[in-house]
Known about the structure:
The chain is of the alpha/beta class. The chain has helices at 14-24, 53-57, 82-94, and strands spanning 5-11, 27-29, 37-43, 46-52, 75-78, 104-105, 109-115, 121-127. It is 21% helix and 33% strand. Strands 1-4-3-2 form a four-stranded mixed sheet. A hairpin with a 3-residue loop joins strand 6 (104-105) and strand 7.
Amino acid sequence: MAKQVFINLAVSDLQKSMDFYTSLGFSNNPQFSDDTAKCMVWSENIYVMILNHDKFKSFTKKEIADTKSKIAWLFSLSMDSVDDVNKTMTNWLNTWGIEPNETRDYWFMYQRTIEDFDWHSWEIFFMDMSKFPNT
């Protein structure tokens, strides 16, 4: 079996969050979704589980972080081109996302940042390794 990554996020509004992630290009896997959680599929091996606060709290004894004022993680998603990065950002921004940083162009990597309804930070980037100097 291939290794898989499941990112679990506490969200305040399950439907708004599902709409937001769908706008990025995620699809929903109804097999692992219910009224308390939605399984959002990025690729064959990468999933984002968006969970309402009660469901999320059932997995931990810790408090849910206030990600509006503090950052606990930074997720990154690669795209196939600069154009894909910009199209994805436009979709997210039209669905409510906030772009907290300026676009960054590091000659071999083009990167933009967005935050969702619950202030989870995502880096959307394209990396052109042919521009990266050989070492």
